[in-house]
Design goal:
Length: 407
C-alpha cells in the first residue's frame, strides 16, 4: 500500500489543494453577509474532504477493475437517469436531482464518468485499429443517445451536450478516419451556422415552440447571446452584470470582498455557475489568468500520465476526463465573455456543488490509479479477436455456456 502512495503525482495533489483554497475563498466571498447561504463555505470544505478521501481511495484501486465492469457501470448510471426522470427533484428548471437522506445527488453529473468508462472499454478492444463508420462509429454513437435523451428530458441541456463532447474526444483518439472526422466537422459547423441564423430569423416562432414544449428558459439563455436587442432587461440581467463585473475588475481586481457587483448580489448563482465572475471582479485579469494557468498545468499533467500509460484503456479514460474538464471550463466561462449562451455548467473544482466536486475528484482518482498501476500489464480487455463495435456490443448479450454445457 505504501509503495502505491509513493507513485502518486503530488504535483496534481498540490494543484487540487490550491483549487480547494480558491474555491472556499470564492464561495465565502459570494455568500458573505447572506444568512441563507452562510453555511456554504463550510459545506464546500466538507465536500472537499470527502473528495480527497474519494481521490486517494480510487488511487489505490486498480482502474482495470472499473474497466472490467464497464457494462454494469453504464447500466447503473443509466438506471439512475431513468429513476430521476420519475422521482427527481427540480432545481432551477431542471428535474435532475435525487434527494437521498437529505443529500442532493445529480445522476447526470455522475453519468459523465460512467460514459467515459463505457466508451473507453469498447474502444480499447479495437486495439487502435481504424474505426469503420457503419460498424463502429454509428453503434458507439447510438450508445450515447439514450442517456442524452434522458438528460434532455430533465431539462438539462448543459450536461446533455457534455456527453457529445466526451464521445467526440474519445472517437478522435480512438483512431476515427480523418475523412470521417473532416466530414463530421463540416456538418457540425454548417449545422451551427444554420441553427444560429434560423434562431435569429425565426426567433418568435422558435420561442413559441420552446414555450409549448416547456423549454422556455432555453430561449432565455440563447436570447442574450444571439438577439440581445430583442431581449428583456430581466433576461439580460445575469450576463450583463457578469460582463460589467469582469470588465470592472481590470488588471488586478478590486480586492477580496470588495467586488461591488458580487457583494451587491447582482449576479445570480455567484457561488455556483457564476463563480468565475467573482474571480474576475475581485482578482481581475491576473486572478483569472492564474486560475486558467492552474487548469492548464493540471491538464498537462494528465496528458503526461496518458503518454506514459502502457495499457490500452488508460489513455482513453484520461482523454475522456480531459474532454469533460475542457468542456466544463469553456462552457462555464464562455457566456460571461460573450462567446456562447448560458448552459448552467459548474466550474470544475471551484463552483459550489457536492456531486460535481466529488465526480471531478473521483475522475482525478481514476487518473491517479492509472499512474499507480500502469506497470501492471495484465490484459483484462478480452481476446485478440478483431471485432467491430457492433460485434462487441452483440457479444455482450450472448450467453456464455456453463462448464457443464462445455463438458
Amino acid at each position: 500500500m505504501l509503495h502505491k502512495f509513493k507513485k502518486i503525482d503530488y504535483n496534481i495533489v498540490f494543484i487540487l489543494v490550491i483549487l480547494m483554497v480558491i474555491s472556499i475563498l470564492s464561495i465565502y466571498s459570494t455568500t458573505f453577509g447572506r444568512p441563507r447561504w452562510e453555511s456554504y463555505p463550510q459545506r464546500a470544505g466538507i465536500f472537499y474532504i470527502i473528495g480527497f478521501i474519494v481521490f486517494f481511495g480510487m488511487s489505490m484501486i486498480n482502474y482495470k477493475v472499473i474497466i472490467k465492469n464497464y457494462l454494469y457501470i453504464y447500466g447503473g448510471g443509466l438506471l439512475l437517469l431513468v429513476i430521476v426522470n420519475f422521482f427527481g427533484v427540480t432545481y432551477y428548471g431542471a428535474q435532475g436531482w435525487l434527494s437521498i437522506f437529505g443529500l442532493s445527488l445529480q445522476p447526470a453529473e455522475l453519468f459523465k464518468l460512467c460514459l467515459i468508462v463505457f466508451l473507453s472499454a469498447l474502444l480499447s478492444r479495437k486495439k487502435n485499429r481504424p474505426l469503420l463508420f457503419g460498424r463502429d462509429v454509428i453503434p458507439i454513437a447510438l450508445c450515447v443517445l439514450p442517456p442524452l435523451l434522458l438528460v434532455l428530458l430533465q431539462n438539462d441541456l448543459g450536461n446533455a451536450l457534455s456527453y457529445v463532447v466526451i464521445l467526440v474526444g474519445l472517437l478522435w483518439i480512438g483512431n476515427v478516419k480523418f475523412s470521417h472526422a473532416l466530414i463530421g466537422f463540416i456538418i457540425a459547423v454548417a449545422a451551427f451556422i444554420a441553427g444560429t441564423q434560423a434562431y435569429v430569423h425565426y426567433h418568435d416562432q422558435i420561442t413559441k415552440f420552446l414555450q409549448d414544449i416547456g423549454r422556455a428558459h432555453w430561449a432565455d439563455r440563447f436570447d442574450p447571446w444571439l438577439v440581445p436587442d430583442q431581449t428583456s432587461r430581466d433576461v439580460l440581467w445575469q450576463t450583463y452584470n457578469a460582463k460589467l463585473a469582469i470588465g470592472s475588475g481590470g488588471i488586478s481586481g478590486k480586492g477580496y470582498l470588495e467586488g461591488t457587483t458580487i457583494q451587491s448580489n447582482r449576479v445570480p448563482l455567484a457561488y455556483a455557475d457564476s463563480i468565475f465572475v467573482q474571480i474576475g471582479e475581485e482578482f481581475g485579469f491576473v486572478g483569472a489568468s492564474v486560475l486558467l494557468l492552474l487548469y492548464f498545468i493540471l491538464i498537462h499533467r494528465l496528458v503526461l500520465i496518458a503518454l506514459e500509460c502502457k495499457d490500452r484503456a488508460g489513455p482513453y479514460l484520461i482523454v475522456g476526463i480531459i474532454s469533460m474538464l475542457l468542456y466544463q471550463i469553456f462552457v462555464n466561462i464562455g457566456p460571461f465573455i460573450g462567446l456562447m449562451p448560458l448552459t448552467g455548467i459548474t466550474l470544475p473544482f471551484i463552483s459550489f456543488g457536492g456531486t460535481s466536486l466529488v465526480l471531478n475528484m473521483l475522475s482525478m482518482g481514476v487518473v491517479m490509479s492509472i499512474k499507480v498501476h500502469t506497470e501492471e500489464n495484465e490484459d483484462i480487455l478480452g481476446s485478440s479477436e478483431q471485432l467491430s463495435i457492433t460485434e462487441l456490443i452483440m457479444k455482450l448479450f450472448k450467453r456464455k455456456p456453463s462448464q457443464q454445457e462445455q463438458s
